[in-house]
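Hello again,

I reread your note about wanting to compare the complex against the isolated chains. To keep things tidy I'm splitting this into two emails, and this first one only covers the full assembly. Below are the input lines as submitted, including protein chains and any nucleic acid or small-molecule components. They are followed by the predicted structure of everything together. The single-chain runs will come separately.
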Amino acid sequence: MKTKKFLLIFALSFLLNTQTLFADEAKMAKGLEIFNETAGCAACHVLKAAGSEGNIGPNLDTVEGLSYESVMDIVTHGLGVMPAFGEDEILTKEEIDIVSFYVANSVTK
Amino acid sequence: MKKDKTKLNLNRRNFLTGTATLAGIAATASVVPITIANANHSEGKKGLPDFISWKDRDALIVHSDKGIETHRSAIGESLITPNRNIYIRNNMPTMTDKQIGDRKKWKVSIEGVKNPQTFTLAQLQKLGHETMATILQCSGNGRGFFEHKPRGSQWKTGAAACVLWTGVPMKTVVDACGGINGAAVYMTSEGVDHEPTGLDPKKAMIARSVPKKVYKDAMLAWEMNGVPLPNAHGGPLRMVTPGYFGINNVKHIGKVAFTTEQSSVKYMKSSYRISPIGKKGSQYPSCWEMPVKSWITRPTDETGTVKAGKVQIVGVAMGGTKKVRSVKVSVDGGSSWKKAKFIGPNLGKYAWRQFVLETTLSAGTYNIASLASNGSDKQPELRMENRRGYAHNGWKDHSVNITVV
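Full-complex prediction:
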Protein backbone atom coordinates (compact mmCIF):
# COMPACT_ATOMS: atom_id res chain seq x y z
CA MET A 1 0.00 0.00 0.00
CA LYS A 2 2.79 2.33 1.02
CA THR A 3 4.62 1.71 -2.22
CA LYS A 4 1.52 2.42 -4.28
CA LYS A 5 1.01 5.74 -2.46
CA PHE A 6 4.62 6.58 -2.94
CA LEU A 7 4.50 5.80 -6.64
CA LEU A 8 1.36 7.89 -7.03
CA ILE A 9 2.93 10.91 -5.36
CA PHE A 10 6.09 10.40 -7.36
CA ALA A 11 4.21 10.17 -10.63
CA LEU A 12 2.13 13.23 -9.78
CA SER A 13 5.07 15.39 -8.83
CA PHE A 14 6.97 14.24 -11.92
CA LEU A 15 4.02 15.22 -14.05
CA LEU A 16 3.72 18.61 -12.38
CA ASN A 17 7.44 19.31 -12.76
CA THR A 18 7.46 18.45 -16.42
CA GLN A 19 4.37 20.60 -16.90
CA THR A 20 6.31 23.52 -15.41
CA LEU A 21 9.27 22.66 -17.59
CA PHE A 22 7.15 22.64 -20.69
CA ALA A 23 5.45 25.87 -19.62
CA ASP A 24 8.86 27.53 -19.09
CA GLU A 25 10.11 26.31 -22.44
CA ALA A 26 7.05 27.68 -24.16
CA LYS A 27 7.47 30.98 -22.35
CA MET A 28 11.11 31.24 -23.41
CA ALA A 29 10.18 30.48 -27.01
CA LYS A 30 7.50 33.15 -26.94
CA GLY A 31 9.92 35.53 -25.26
CA LEU A 32 12.45 35.07 -28.06
CA GLU A 33 9.73 35.85 -30.57
CA ILE A 34 8.74 39.06 -28.76
CA PHE A 35 12.40 40.01 -28.39
CA ASN A 36 13.33 39.50 -32.03
CA GLU A 37 10.05 40.24 -33.76
CA THR A 38 7.15 41.84 -31.93
CA ALA A 39 9.01 44.43 -29.89
CA GLY A 40 12.16 44.64 -31.96
CA CYS A 41 14.49 44.62 -28.95
CA ALA A 42 17.04 42.95 -31.19
CA ALA A 43 17.39 46.07 -33.29
CA CYS A 44 18.89 47.99 -30.38
CA HIS A 45 20.41 45.41 -28.04
CA VAL A 46 22.99 42.66 -28.05
CA LEU A 47 21.71 39.45 -26.46
CA LYS A 48 23.78 36.40 -27.34
CA ALA A 49 20.97 33.94 -26.70
CA ALA A 50 18.76 35.73 -29.19
CA GLY A 51 21.53 36.19 -31.73
CA SER A 52 20.92 39.92 -31.73
CA GLU A 53 23.58 42.55 -32.27
CA GLY A 54 21.93 45.93 -31.89
CA ASN A 55 24.15 48.76 -30.67
CA ILE A 56 21.85 51.53 -29.51
CA GLY A 57 21.14 50.46 -25.95
CA PRO A 58 23.43 48.48 -23.67
CA ASN A 59 24.55 44.96 -24.47
CA LEU A 60 22.12 43.06 -22.22
CA ASP A 61 24.74 40.40 -21.47
CA THR A 62 26.85 43.11 -19.81
CA VAL A 63 24.18 44.85 -17.72
CA GLU A 64 25.05 44.65 -14.03
CA GLY A 65 22.22 43.57 -11.77
CA LEU A 66 19.83 42.71 -14.59
CA SER A 67 16.79 40.88 -13.20
CA TYR A 68 13.20 40.06 -14.16
CA GLU A 69 12.07 43.07 -12.11
CA SER A 70 14.57 45.54 -13.56
CA VAL A 71 13.84 44.45 -17.14
CA MET A 72 10.10 44.74 -16.55
CA ASP A 73 10.56 48.20 -15.09
CA ILE A 74 12.51 49.51 -18.07
CA VAL A 75 10.38 47.80 -20.70
CA THR A 76 7.24 49.24 -19.09
CA HIS A 77 8.45 52.81 -18.54
CA GLY A 78 11.19 53.22 -21.13
CA LEU A 79 14.48 55.06 -20.70
CA GLY A 80 15.86 57.82 -22.93
CA VAL A 81 15.30 56.78 -26.54
CA MET A 82 13.98 53.37 -25.46
CA PRO A 83 10.19 53.43 -25.83
CA ALA A 84 7.84 52.90 -22.90
CA PHE A 85 6.43 49.63 -24.21
CA GLY A 86 3.99 49.39 -21.33
CA GLU A 87 2.98 53.00 -20.78
CA ASP A 88 2.50 53.56 -24.51
CA GLU A 89 0.74 50.20 -24.90
CA ILE A 90 3.12 48.88 -27.54
CA LEU A 91 3.21 45.54 -25.70
CA THR A 92 0.55 43.98 -23.50
CA LYS A 93 1.20 43.31 -19.82
CA GLU A 94 1.43 39.62 -20.63
CA GLU A 95 3.96 40.21 -23.40
CA ILE A 96 6.06 42.35 -21.06
CA ASP A 97 6.01 39.60 -18.44
CA ILE A 98 7.07 37.02 -21.03
CA VAL A 99 9.88 39.06 -22.57
CA SER A 100 11.18 40.12 -19.14
CA PHE A 101 11.22 36.47 -18.07
CA TYR A 102 12.97 35.59 -21.31
CA VAL A 103 15.70 38.24 -21.03
CA ALA A 104 16.37 37.60 -17.35
CA ASN A 105 16.86 33.91 -18.07
CA SER A 106 18.89 34.44 -21.23
CA VAL A 107 21.68 36.82 -20.27
CA THR A 108 25.14 35.30 -20.12
CA LYS A 109 26.57 36.08 -16.70
CA MET B 1 5.43 29.11 -43.98
CA LYS B 2 8.37 28.08 -41.88
CA LYS B 3 9.16 30.70 -39.27
CA ASP B 4 12.84 31.25 -38.67
CA LYS B 5 12.97 32.22 -35.00
CA THR B 6 16.50 33.55 -35.13
CA LYS B 7 15.88 35.89 -38.05
CA LEU B 8 16.09 39.49 -36.99
CA ASN B 9 13.29 41.68 -38.18
CA LEU B 10 14.92 45.07 -38.55
CA ASN B 11 11.69 46.59 -39.75
CA ARG B 12 10.42 46.45 -36.19
CA ARG B 13 12.72 49.31 -35.32
CA ASN B 14 10.57 51.54 -37.44
CA PHE B 15 8.25 52.35 -34.61
CA LEU B 16 11.12 54.50 -33.43
CA THR B 17 11.64 56.11 -36.83
CA GLY B 18 8.04 57.05 -37.53
CA THR B 19 4.99 56.89 -35.36
CA ALA B 20 4.66 55.77 -31.78
CA THR B 21 2.58 52.73 -32.68
CA LEU B 22 3.33 49.54 -34.53
CA ALA B 23 0.69 50.51 -37.05
CA GLY B 24 3.14 52.93 -38.60
CA ILE B 25 5.65 50.23 -39.41
CA ALA B 26 4.56 49.53 -42.94
CA ALA B 27 4.57 53.21 -43.81
CA THR B 28 8.01 54.13 -42.52
CA ALA B 29 11.04 53.83 -44.70
CA SER B 30 14.44 53.68 -43.10
CA VAL B 31 16.01 50.54 -41.73
CA VAL B 32 19.55 50.82 -40.50
CA PRO B 33 21.83 47.98 -41.48
CA ILE B 34 23.02 46.42 -38.29
CA THR B 35 26.63 46.40 -39.48
CA ILE B 36 26.92 50.16 -39.09
CA ALA B 37 25.50 50.05 -35.60
CA ASN B 38 27.81 47.19 -34.74
CA ALA B 39 30.99 48.91 -35.69
CA ASN B 40 32.65 49.74 -32.41
CA HIS B 41 31.03 48.02 -29.50
CA SER B 42 32.37 44.47 -29.38
CA GLU B 43 34.20 43.55 -26.20
CA GLY B 44 37.93 44.00 -26.30
CA LYS B 45 40.50 41.90 -24.49
CA LYS B 46 40.67 44.16 -21.42
CA GLY B 47 37.03 43.68 -20.48
CA LEU B 48 36.17 47.08 -21.88
CA PRO B 49 34.15 47.62 -25.03
CA ASP B 50 36.31 48.21 -28.11
CA PHE B 51 35.49 51.87 -28.45
CA ILE B 52 37.12 52.59 -25.09
CA SER B 53 39.74 49.86 -24.94
CA TRP B 54 42.32 52.65 -24.36
CA LYS B 55 40.87 53.43 -20.93
CA ASP B 56 42.20 52.10 -17.61
CA ARG B 57 40.06 49.08 -16.68
CA ASP B 58 41.25 49.14 -13.05
CA ALA B 59 40.02 52.69 -12.56
CA LEU B 60 36.54 51.87 -13.80
CA ILE B 61 33.33 50.19 -12.70
CA VAL B 62 31.45 48.65 -15.62
CA HIS B 63 27.69 48.81 -15.09
CA SER B 64 27.14 47.87 -18.73
CA ASP B 65 29.03 48.37 -21.97
CA LYS B 66 27.38 51.78 -22.21
CA GLY B 67 27.54 52.90 -18.56
CA ILE B 68 30.98 52.97 -17.00
CA GLU B 69 31.99 55.07 -13.98
CA THR B 70 35.25 55.91 -12.25
CA HIS B 71 36.19 54.28 -8.95
CA ARG B 72 35.88 56.69 -6.04
CA SER B 73 39.57 56.67 -5.29
CA ALA B 74 40.57 57.08 -8.95
CA ILE B 75 39.23 60.63 -9.14
CA GLY B 76 40.87 63.81 -8.02
CA GLU B 77 44.34 62.68 -7.00
CA SER B 78 45.84 64.97 -9.59
CA LEU B 79 42.95 67.44 -9.79
CA ILE B 80 42.41 66.83 -13.48
CA THR B 81 40.85 63.44 -14.27
CA PRO B 82 43.01 61.67 -16.87
CA ASN B 83 41.13 60.68 -20.04
CA ARG B 84 41.77 57.00 -19.39
CA ASN B 85 39.79 57.26 -16.12
CA ILE B 86 36.89 59.39 -17.30
CA TYR B 87 33.41 57.88 -17.15
CA ILE B 88 31.34 56.91 -20.15
CA ARG B 89 27.69 57.80 -20.52
CA ASN B 90 26.47 58.10 -24.09
CA ASN B 91 22.81 58.13 -25.05
CA MET B 92 23.67 57.28 -28.65
CA PRO B 93 26.38 54.93 -29.93
CA THR B 94 29.76 56.64 -30.14
CA MET B 95 30.44 57.86 -33.65
CA THR B 96 33.18 55.96 -35.46
CA ASP B 97 36.11 57.47 -37.36
CA LYS B 98 34.39 56.41 -40.55
CA GLN B 99 31.14 58.15 -39.64
CA ILE B 100 33.01 61.29 -38.58
CA GLY B 101 35.11 61.46 -41.72
CA ASP B 102 37.74 64.14 -42.15
CA ARG B 103 37.79 65.81 -38.74
CA LYS B 104 39.00 69.16 -40.08
CA LYS B 105 35.89 69.24 -42.27
CA TRP B 106 33.44 68.58 -39.41
CA LYS B 107 30.67 71.16 -39.67
CA VAL B 108 28.69 73.08 -37.11
CA SER B 109 26.02 75.58 -38.12
CA ILE B 110 25.24 78.65 -36.04
CA GLU B 111 21.68 79.98 -36.13
CA GLY B 112 19.59 82.60 -34.36
CA VAL B 113 22.35 85.12 -34.96
CA LYS B 114 22.57 88.16 -37.22
CA ASN B 115 24.66 86.31 -39.82
CA PRO B 116 23.88 82.59 -39.59
CA GLN B 117 26.63 80.46 -41.09
CA THR B 118 28.39 77.13 -40.96
CA PHE B 119 31.93 76.66 -39.73
CA THR B 120 34.22 73.74 -40.28
CA LEU B 121 36.45 72.61 -37.43
CA ALA B 122 39.43 74.04 -39.33
CA GLN B 123 37.71 77.43 -39.53
CA LEU B 124 36.80 77.41 -35.83
CA GLN B 125 40.41 76.66 -34.99
CA LYS B 126 41.42 79.79 -36.86
CA LEU B 127 38.72 81.86 -35.17
CA GLY B 128 39.93 81.53 -31.59
CA HIS B 129 41.82 79.42 -29.05
CA GLU B 130 41.20 79.11 -25.33
CA THR B 131 41.60 76.54 -22.57
CA MET B 132 39.39 76.20 -19.51
CA ALA B 133 38.67 73.67 -16.76
CA THR B 134 35.15 72.51 -16.00
CA ILE B 135 33.40 69.63 -14.29
CA LEU B 136 31.75 67.05 -16.45
CA GLN B 137 29.08 65.35 -14.35
CA CYS B 138 26.17 63.16 -15.30
CA SER B 139 22.80 64.43 -14.07
CA GLY B 140 22.34 61.04 -12.47
CA ASN B 141 25.62 60.96 -10.54
CA GLY B 142 24.56 59.71 -7.12
CA ARG B 143 21.44 57.93 -8.40
CA GLY B 144 22.73 54.73 -6.83
CA PHE B 145 22.06 56.23 -3.38
CA PHE B 146 18.34 56.81 -3.89
CA GLU B 147 16.18 54.35 -1.98
CA HIS B 148 13.32 54.15 -4.46
CA LYS B 149 15.66 52.56 -7.00
CA PRO B 150 15.08 54.91 -9.95
CA ARG B 151 15.67 53.47 -13.44
CA GLY B 152 18.98 54.26 -15.06
CA SER B 153 22.66 53.84 -14.37
CA GLN B 154 23.32 53.36 -10.67
CA TRP B 155 26.20 55.78 -10.37
CA LYS B 156 27.62 56.57 -6.96
CA THR B 157 30.32 59.26 -7.31
CA GLY B 158 32.11 58.19 -10.48
CA ALA B 159 30.06 59.85 -13.21
CA ALA B 160 32.10 63.01 -12.80
CA ALA B 161 35.43 64.37 -14.01
CA CYS B 162 37.42 67.59 -13.94
CA VAL B 163 38.58 68.31 -17.47
CA LEU B 164 40.72 70.83 -19.33
CA TRP B 165 39.00 71.76 -22.58
CA THR B 166 40.61 73.55 -25.48
CA GLY B 167 38.49 75.17 -28.15
CA VAL B 168 36.93 78.42 -29.28
CA PRO B 169 34.77 80.44 -26.89
CA MET B 170 31.11 80.69 -27.96
CA LYS B 171 31.46 84.45 -27.40
CA THR B 172 34.02 84.55 -30.21
CA VAL B 173 31.79 82.51 -32.51
CA VAL B 174 28.79 84.71 -31.72
CA ASP B 175 30.81 87.86 -32.44
CA ALA B 176 31.92 86.40 -35.75
CA CYS B 177 28.23 85.94 -36.58
CA GLY B 178 27.30 89.53 -35.77
CA GLY B 179 25.64 88.85 -32.42
CA ILE B 180 22.56 87.03 -31.16
CA ASN B 181 19.07 87.82 -32.44
CA GLY B 182 17.25 89.98 -29.91
CA ALA B 183 14.31 87.67 -29.20
CA ALA B 184 16.40 84.61 -28.33
CA VAL B 185 16.11 83.25 -24.80
CA TYR B 186 17.97 79.93 -25.10
CA MET B 187 21.15 78.52 -26.56
CA THR B 188 20.12 75.22 -28.14
CA SER B 189 22.81 72.70 -29.09
CA GLU B 190 22.10 69.73 -31.34
CA GLY B 191 24.26 66.61 -31.71
CA VAL B 192 24.42 64.45 -34.83
CA ASP B 193 25.32 61.12 -33.25
CA HIS B 194 21.76 59.90 -33.73
CA GLU B 195 22.03 60.23 -37.51
CA PRO B 196 23.86 56.96 -38.31
CA THR B 197 21.21 55.06 -36.33
CA GLY B 198 18.34 56.17 -38.55
CA LEU B 199 16.17 56.71 -35.50
CA ASP B 200 13.51 59.44 -35.40
CA PRO B 201 15.28 62.67 -34.36
CA LYS B 202 12.30 63.64 -32.20
CA LYS B 203 13.10 60.64 -30.02
CA ALA B 204 16.81 60.17 -30.53
CA MET B 205 18.53 63.49 -31.23
CA ILE B 206 20.43 64.93 -28.33
CA ALA B 207 19.31 68.55 -28.39
CA ARG B 208 19.64 70.64 -25.26
CA SER B 209 18.50 74.20 -24.60
CA VAL B 210 20.11 76.18 -21.80
CA PRO B 211 19.56 79.81 -20.80
CA LYS B 212 21.12 82.16 -23.35
CA LYS B 213 23.52 83.64 -20.77
CA VAL B 214 25.46 80.36 -20.73
CA TYR B 215 26.98 81.27 -24.09
CA LYS B 216 29.22 83.82 -22.36
CA ASP B 217 31.34 81.11 -20.72
CA ALA B 218 30.57 78.24 -23.11
CA MET B 219 33.01 76.78 -25.57
CA LEU B 220 33.10 74.59 -28.67
CA ALA B 221 35.86 72.20 -27.65
CA TRP B 222 38.07 70.03 -29.83
CA GLU B 223 40.63 68.98 -27.25
CA MET B 224 40.21 67.18 -23.94
CA ASN B 225 43.12 67.27 -21.51
CA GLY B 226 45.57 68.12 -24.25
CA VAL B 227 44.61 65.51 -26.83
CA PRO B 228 42.14 65.66 -29.70
CA LEU B 229 38.67 65.06 -28.26
CA PRO B 230 38.19 61.27 -28.26
CA ASN B 231 35.17 59.96 -30.18
CA ALA B 232 33.87 58.38 -26.98
CA HIS B 233 33.67 61.86 -25.43
CA GLY B 234 32.03 63.54 -28.38
CA GLY B 235 34.83 64.07 -30.83
CA PRO B 236 35.77 65.83 -32.94
CA LEU B 237 33.74 68.71 -31.44
CA ARG B 238 31.40 69.20 -28.51
CA MET B 239 29.68 72.00 -26.65
CA VAL B 240 30.95 72.72 -23.16
CA THR B 241 28.47 74.47 -20.84
CA PRO B 242 30.39 75.26 -17.64
CA GLY B 243 28.56 74.56 -14.39
CA TYR B 244 25.74 72.73 -16.17
CA PHE B 245 25.05 69.01 -16.05
CA GLY B 246 26.74 66.69 -18.53
CA ILE B 247 23.81 66.23 -20.92
CA ASN B 248 23.98 69.93 -21.82
CA ASN B 249 27.55 69.54 -23.00
CA VAL B 250 26.30 68.15 -26.29
CA LYS B 251 28.67 65.70 -27.99
CA HIS B 252 29.32 65.43 -31.72
CA ILE B 253 27.80 68.87 -32.13
CA GLY B 254 26.20 69.82 -35.44
CA LYS B 255 24.30 72.99 -34.65
CA VAL B 256 24.13 75.79 -32.11
CA ALA B 257 20.99 77.89 -32.39
CA PHE B 258 19.82 80.82 -30.30
CA THR B 259 16.12 80.17 -29.92
CA THR B 260 12.98 81.57 -28.37
CA GLU B 261 11.72 78.13 -27.33
CA GLN B 262 13.32 75.09 -25.76
CA SER B 263 13.93 72.20 -28.12
CA SER B 264 10.93 69.88 -28.36
CA VAL B 265 12.90 66.63 -28.68
CA LYS B 266 12.45 63.92 -26.06
CA TYR B 267 15.86 64.51 -24.51
CA MET B 268 14.84 68.07 -23.70
CA LYS B 269 11.09 67.92 -23.26
CA SER B 270 10.58 64.82 -21.15
CA SER B 271 13.92 63.31 -20.17
CA TYR B 272 16.22 65.03 -17.69
CA ARG B 273 13.40 66.73 -15.77
CA ILE B 274 13.61 66.93 -11.99
CA SER B 275 10.16 65.98 -10.73
CA PRO B 276 8.72 64.55 -7.52
CA ILE B 277 8.49 60.76 -7.25
CA GLY B 278 5.38 59.65 -9.10
CA LYS B 279 5.12 62.76 -11.24
CA LYS B 280 6.56 63.70 -14.60
CA GLY B 281 6.22 66.31 -17.32
CA SER B 282 7.89 69.13 -19.19
CA GLN B 283 6.68 71.67 -16.65
CA TYR B 284 9.33 70.46 -14.21
CA PRO B 285 12.81 72.01 -14.19
CA SER B 286 15.40 70.58 -16.54
CA CYS B 287 18.78 69.27 -15.40
CA TRP B 288 20.65 72.52 -15.78
CA GLU B 289 22.89 74.12 -13.12
CA MET B 290 24.85 71.69 -10.99
CA PRO B 291 24.51 72.26 -7.25
CA VAL B 292 27.38 72.66 -4.78
CA LYS B 293 28.84 69.24 -4.00
CA SER B 294 31.80 67.41 -2.51
CA TRP B 295 32.88 63.90 -1.62
CA ILE B 296 35.75 62.11 0.05
CA THR B 297 37.97 60.16 -2.33
CA ARG B 298 40.24 58.57 0.27
CA PRO B 299 40.18 56.78 2.62
CA THR B 300 37.02 54.90 1.69
CA ASP B 301 35.66 51.39 2.26
CA GLU B 302 37.31 50.59 -1.08
CA THR B 303 40.81 51.61 -0.07
CA GLY B 304 41.08 49.10 2.78
CA THR B 305 41.68 49.43 6.50
CA VAL B 306 43.52 52.49 7.78
CA LYS B 307 46.41 52.40 10.24
CA ALA B 308 45.73 54.27 13.46
CA GLY B 309 47.52 57.58 13.82
CA LYS B 310 47.75 60.53 11.46
CA VAL B 311 45.29 60.26 8.57
CA GLN B 312 44.95 62.49 5.50
CA ILE B 313 41.29 62.69 4.51
CA VAL B 314 41.19 63.78 0.89
CA GLY B 315 38.40 64.75 -1.49
CA VAL B 316 37.07 67.06 -4.17
CA ALA B 317 34.65 69.96 -3.84
CA MET B 318 32.78 71.97 -6.46
CA GLY B 319 30.58 75.05 -6.35
CA GLY B 320 28.46 74.41 -9.45
CA THR B 321 28.18 77.70 -11.31
CA LYS B 322 29.74 79.57 -8.38
CA LYS B 323 33.18 79.27 -6.87
CA VAL B 324 33.38 76.70 -4.04
CA ARG B 325 34.22 78.65 -0.86
CA SER B 326 34.76 76.10 1.89
CA VAL B 327 34.59 72.45 2.81
CA LYS B 328 34.27 70.91 6.24
CA VAL B 329 34.82 67.30 7.17
CA SER B 330 33.28 65.15 9.89
CA VAL B 331 34.59 61.83 11.16
CA ASP B 332 31.61 61.15 13.40
CA GLY B 333 28.76 61.05 10.90
CA GLY B 334 28.04 64.77 11.06
CA SER B 335 27.96 65.40 14.81
CA SER B 336 31.02 67.63 14.62
CA TRP B 337 32.85 69.28 11.71
CA LYS B 338 36.32 70.62 11.08
CA LYS B 339 37.24 72.99 8.26
CA ALA B 340 39.34 71.27 5.57
CA LYS B 341 42.15 72.93 3.67
CA PHE B 342 42.02 73.51 -0.07
CA ILE B 343 45.16 72.16 -1.74
CA GLY B 344 46.51 72.23 -5.26
CA PRO B 345 45.91 74.82 -7.95
CA ASN B 346 42.73 76.79 -8.37
CA LEU B 347 41.57 76.29 -11.95
CA GLY B 348 38.62 78.65 -11.68
CA LYS B 349 35.07 78.49 -10.43
CA TYR B 350 33.95 75.76 -12.86
CA ALA B 351 36.64 73.28 -11.82
CA TRP B 352 36.72 71.45 -8.54
CA ARG B 353 39.18 72.00 -5.70
CA GLN B 354 41.00 69.27 -3.90
CA PHE B 355 40.73 69.40 -0.12
CA VAL B 356 42.50 67.72 2.78
CA LEU B 357 41.75 67.35 6.47
CA GLU B 358 44.68 66.06 8.47
CA THR B 359 43.52 64.31 11.61
CA THR B 360 44.49 61.61 14.09
CA LEU B 361 42.33 58.54 14.39
CA SER B 362 42.59 55.70 16.90
CA ALA B 363 41.34 52.18 16.21
CA GLY B 364 37.63 51.98 15.51
CA THR B 365 35.04 52.54 12.81
CA TYR B 366 34.25 56.00 11.52
CA ASN B 367 31.69 57.57 9.23
CA ILE B 368 33.43 60.36 7.31
CA ALA B 369 31.55 63.04 5.47
CA SER B 370 32.33 66.30 3.68
CA LEU B 371 30.12 69.36 3.34
CA ALA B 372 30.91 72.10 0.84
CA SER B 373 29.59 75.64 0.51
CA ASN B 374 29.72 78.07 -2.40
CA GLY B 375 28.81 81.11 -0.35
CA SER B 376 25.08 81.14 -1.09
CA ASP B 377 24.37 77.41 -0.89
CA LYS B 378 25.72 74.48 1.02
CA GLN B 379 25.14 70.77 0.66
CA PRO B 380 22.03 69.49 2.41
CA GLU B 381 22.27 66.48 4.67
CA LEU B 382 19.65 64.49 2.80
CA ARG B 383 19.06 63.84 -0.87
CA MET B 384 16.38 65.84 -2.66
CA GLU B 385 13.95 63.04 -3.53
CA ASN B 386 13.02 63.05 -7.19
CA ARG B 387 11.58 60.55 -9.63
CA ARG B 388 14.63 59.84 -11.73
CA GLY B 389 17.33 60.22 -9.06
CA TYR B 390 18.96 63.37 -10.45
CA ALA B 391 21.14 66.09 -8.93
CA HIS B 392 22.13 64.28 -5.72
CA ASN B 393 24.28 66.46 -3.48
CA GLY B 394 23.26 65.30 0.00
CA TRP B 395 26.31 64.84 2.24
CA LYS B 396 24.96 61.92 4.24
CA ASP B 397 24.63 59.50 1.34
CA HIS B 398 28.09 60.49 0.13
CA SER B 399 29.71 59.67 3.47
CA VAL B 400 32.00 56.65 3.78
CA ASN B 401 32.59 54.12 6.52
CA ILE B 402 36.16 53.25 7.33
CA THR B 403 37.86 50.90 9.76
CA VAL B 404 40.96 52.08 11.61
CA VAL B 405 43.18 49.38 13.10
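For quick reference: Strands of chain A lie at 46-47, 52-53.

B.
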